[in-house]
Amino acid sequence: MSNKSSDREVELRAFDETKLGVKGIVDAGVTTIPSIFIHPISKRAQPPKTNTTNDVASRFRFPIIDLSASENDSELRKKAIEEILEASKTWGFFQVVNHEISDRVLEEMLQGVRDFFEQGDEVKKYYYSRDFANKRFTYLSNVDLYTGPAANWRDSFGCRMAPHPPHPDELPPPCRKILIEYSSQVMKLVKMLFELLSEALGLQKNHLNDMGCAEGLNVSGHYYPACPQPELTMGISKHADNAFLTILLQDQIGGLQILHQNEWVDVPPTPGALVINIGDLLQLVTNDLFKSVEHRALANCKGPRISVASFFSTYFQETPRRFAPIKELLCDSNPPKYREITVKEYISYFINKGHDGTSALPHFKI
């Protein structure tokens, strides 16, 4: 091991062992970021050229889909399905409005995340762990701290809420009640989304739900503290999601970008909207019809930015289910592109690979 990599390993362990995350660095009053957070120039967000931001915004209209009355009005439902099909094939992302989760619940969930990260250090340290295979609730900084090329300016908690929800006492008091309520609401919403996605694929509306795509839910709360040198690091580096579907609640600070037609496009914070994106596992079972698209979040000097990602996957939980491209979508001209896998097999490879800017899917191709 070279001195450079050895020094880096020491720095990473020292940071990890504080159990205070990035917020602890900010609370210490730093004006320059530690070297473990500095990304290679090629991996950073480049400052936009003059008028580029406006050009991108005018050329690309991020899809917003209205879910109101789609259950009872056949024409509105058909319109929503067509829009979801187009967005899932071309963007891999869309926002939904009129999704029936109240503004109160959305606001309380964001506040619950903030309250967790801003509670006393000693209380918060109790939950710090990298044993996400066995613990129902874990708080940490950077899932891929030891495997990624550079650390990201973000702290997170993750909580397995389905199929075997934790006892309420296992959840931290600042976000306990709202985590349970929010999780129940997003489970209802994702079942409706999987119905619409099934119909968009030309399948029976229960197909994706019956396959088990909505069986597992992990809710992650993310806290991006204000960064003194946001141009040197990232909130989260380029990656695609390791789930079937993600439902993202974000505050109004912004910073989420997706890679669309080789350009980074801002996902505009829309009051009351939720961001939906296709994950790797849904791309796999649709045989690449739906796209799991790379995205990232910028570090910012405003902070803290708060977001809540609901990932639909069973992750490390033992389940007999195996997944492969859906037979009804295959034909001679569209043969299966992926081998049959378990979710646990996929996630183990994804975690070990780290956020290195490459997709995990090619590893599972036939």
TrEMBL record:
Pfam families, per the entry: 2OG-FeII_Oxy, DIOX_N
Name of protein: 1-aminocyclopropane-1-carboxylate oxidase homolog 1-like
Domain Fe2OG dioxygenase: 213-315
Keyword Signal recorded: no
Gene that produces this protein: LOC110801450
Keywords: Iron, Metal-binding, Oxidoreductase
Family statement: Belongs to the iron/ascorbate-dependent oxidoreductase family.
Origin superkingdom: Eukaryota
InterPro entries in alphabetical order: DIOX_N (IPR026992), IPNS-like_FE2OG_OXY (IPR044861), IPNS-like_sf (IPR027443), Oxoglu/Fe-dep_dioxygenase_dom (IPR005123)
Gene Ontology MF annotations: dioxygenase activity; metal ion binding
